[in-house]
Design goal:
homodimer, 345 residues, alpha/beta, TIM Barrel, 2 domains, 8-stranded parallel sheet, 3-stranded antiparallel sheet, 14 helices, 11 strands, 14% strand
Chain lengths: 345, 345
């Protein structure tokens, strides 16, 4: 049995990437029961929803599972910046008949905190993963108190060394191919972000903890390649997006199975932090990286009503269609089957 | 024996990437004699120099070798654009005491043409590779007349399909990790450029000719990973830069063995076409991608005297320090040894 399986108590060297907005407990349960590590994205769940999802997982599997949180610093509200951001979106508000003064400025996502740790303690999730670094030492100690293993993502060798020094049990090497939010937390310079072929072996060389490869892995051959490069396992997200257990929207599913999926970009338009998704009208017209988008997660609220209106008309023009650069593994098959095929090739 | 070896008549599934400015026939000879495909970068060679290098290779190896050319469209001179470009560099001219009016506006690099094909015919190189697509059908027929196999690089699935349809015998899938010039020729949109983990399997799936993986491959594990992803072989450049047979400058060698090599970016400042190199002062201060840099290869001449002056003072601040995102395989060992170790792991 490989090192990753030993550390996490799983059978297959495969983590299902937590993907907020497109999956809940059902996907996590299916993957965990198939022998991988299923993941519940918690960043957008309130306390009640989180409790319900955790209860659902506990009721449906005795296998290890992962709960994922963001641990960004909560930004200070910036009314002038918010106004500039909304100004840049003003033509769209006109187009869709939206009154921008009625849009609430909301936080979008909350970082991991003590109340959440207390809630988790009742469920003792065997694995807790973080994006954007790690929470405070005190919070991390609380998570460890019930024996949870801790995972976080590194996008550079420096971040990997930092995570190891701060107590991560497993490090995800997130190559530039990966979909969704870049885990970068020690740098905001996009040119430091490198492909899996370059990042993975350099992180494997730099740290002693097991390293999990993420970014561009879409099938069993990709898993074999990652293991050949020294990974202890892989984290796969995009390939699961068409599974029936995912809650991926019909618009998002259609994009993933079209030629459009070939063209992704890093964009900060949807949340304020660079994240990889399929090119949309919003990204084309504004440029995927906007200098006026507020910092994470403050960009979210101003785009939300545009997304809702457009989706109501069947359009993904304003939707975050998160996807990695390799959507070729997306298939509408049960997650258990996909998990076995990924790991078994 | 693998398909790539059959098509090219080589023993190992490994092509040494042609790297203009940092190597000549010596590196090509060493790699070819070791069983790989050595490559001679010809884009910056005049007829006499090309003839001499070809004679040198023919005198030192009976094994197959590759000659590489660019096949861009020669741009029309744009005096206003050139003036704007030089204006953006004006502070540096002042700093180094350079009279910009004395800098010749030169083409920098010439595309493959009929005279060059005639010159090649006398030497019958077994393999001819191109960057930026392929030359005209007539020129390609001339190259084929002596039995040469033709290679070109694809950075997208569309480019791979185009190259296969236009007669490439082998396609290099150039992942975003790769150093030097992006081979992109059907698009100038950088967000279409994806990592090796994503690009390689999608191109393998899209074409029937052998596909060679390039970008981020630095050691035997990387070679195994590329083969696991469906590559018929690999093309490795950066790892050869420290070999004694390479002509890599001392400044460039020092950068490759320092922490600086961890931070590369695509830049159009040195030639006008996006190419990956280690971050330099010029790239940091101008931004690596400049809107005023003339099209390839016209940006070259205005930077050349800055490079020369700085290098004369021992500085690489204005030098194109081409490198891929994974310089971890760079070792100052003979190219034959490196070739065997890459292929034999």
């Amino acid at each position: 049995m490989g090192l990753l399986q030993q550390v996490l108590g799983i059978e297959l060297p495969l983590i299902q990437a937590p993907m907020a907005g497109v999956q809940g407990s059902a996907l996590a349960v299916a993957v965990s029961n198939a022998g991988g590590l299923g993941s519940l994205p918690c960043a957008m769940l309130g306390a009640e929803a989180l409790r319900a999802e955790l209860a659902s997982i506990r009721a449906q599997t005795a296998k290890p599972f992962n709960v994922n949180f963001f641990c960004h610093h909560t930004p200070v509200a910036d009314p002038a910046g918010e106004a500039a951001w909304r100004q840049s979106l003003a033509p769209y508000y006109v187009e869709f008949g939206i009154d921008p003064s009625a849009i609430p400025a909301g936080p979008g996502r909350l970082p991991f905190d003590a109340a959440t740790a207390d809630l988790l303690a009742a469920f003792k999730p065997p694995v807790v993963s973080f994006h954007f670094g790690l929470p405070s030492d005190a919070l991390l100690a609380r998570v460890r108190s019930w024996g949870a293993k801790v995972i976080s993502s590194a996008t550079t060798v420096e971040e990997a060394r930092w995570l190891e020094a701060h107590g991560a049990d497993v490090i995800v090497a997130q190559g530039l191919e990966a979909g969704g939010h870049r885990g970068m937390f020690l740098t905001d310079e996009l040119s430091t972000q490198v492909g899996t072929f370059a990042l993975l072996p350099q992180i494997v060389h730099a740290v002693r903890v097991p390293v999990v490869a993420a970014g561009g892995i879409a099938d069993a051959a990709g898993v074999r390649a990652a293991l050949a490069l020294g990974a202890a396992g892989v984290q796969v997200g995009t390939a699961y997006l068409l599974c029936p257990e995912a809650t991926t929207s019909a618009i998002h599913r259609a994009a993933l199975t079209s030629e459009a999926a070939r063209h992704t970009a890093l964009t900060n338009l949807y949340t304020g932090h660079p994240a990889r998704g399929i090119m949309t009208r919003l990204m084309r017209e504004q440029g995927p990286l906007s200098a006026v988008a507020p910092v994470f997660p403050l960009a979210t609220s101003a785009v939300a009503p545009l997304r809702a209106k457009a989706e109501g008309m069947g359009s993904g023009d304003f939707s975050p269609l998160w996807a990695g650069q390799n959507a070729s593994g997306c298939r509408a098959v049960p997650a258990a089957q996909l998990t076995r095929e990924l790991a078994g090739g």
